[in-house]
Amino acid sequence: MAKKRVAAIVKIQIPAGKATPAPPVGTALGPHGVPIMEFVKQYNAATESQVGTIIPVEITVFEDRSFTFVLKTPPTPVLLRQKAGLAKGSTAPGKTIVGTVSEADIEEVAKIKMPDLNAYDLDAAKAQVRGTARSMGLKVS
């Protein structure tokens, strides 16, 4: 059997378990002819255990309009905001500090993000997460 040819790769961030055919899903997949409701049902079933977090998804669309998708780890700022208990980061990072995260929180986020980061070891991943925390106005204690 011949391999299917890839027509497009679409990347979107959707709240887990709450995808709908409305934008951003419909506008991202509609032009490629993907059955949107089928994707929504599969995505919601795959992410129902993580309701409340934003889960990035990479959808591979084939020429015959079939698709596969890969779930990624939640964005680092989302995880850090959850750890700090904040609704959003600082409006003036570097000048105002809006919260603090512990070194243990940084390590936990780095372990979660490790599969999607371009880091060779946990120390490099922690450095990346610390940088994100600083750019959000969080203090690492």
What's a quick, concise take on this entry?
With 141 residues, the protein is α+β, with helices and mostly antiparallel strands.
What would your notes on this structure say?
The chain has 141 residues and is of the alpha+beta class. 36% of the residues lie in helices and 21% in strands. It contains five helices and five strands. A hairpin with a 4-residue loop joins strand 2 (54-62) and strand 3 (67-71). It is elongated. The relative contact order is 0.15.
SSE diagram, text form:
Layout: E1 6-15, H1 25-29, H2 36-47, E2 54-62, E3 67-71, H3 76-84, E4 99-101, H4 103-113, H5 122-135, E5 138-140
Parallel strand pairs: 4-5
Antiparallel strand pairs: 1-2, 2-3
Helix pairs in contact: 3-4, 4-5
What general outline do the C-alpha atoms trace?
elongated
Q: In percent, how helical is the residue content?
A: 25-40%
How are the strands ordered across the major sheet? 1-2-3
Total of helices: 5
How big a fraction of the residues is strand? 15-25%
Which structural class best describes the helix and strand composition? alpha+beta
**Number of beta strands:** 5
Report the mean per-residue pLDDT as an integer: 82
Q: Give the terminus-to-terminus CA distance.
A: 56 Å
Could you state the order of secondary-structure elements as H and E? EHHEEHEHHE
Notable characteristics:
141 residues, alpha+beta, three-stranded antiparallel beta sheet, two-stranded parallel ribbon, 5 helices, 5 strands, 21% strand
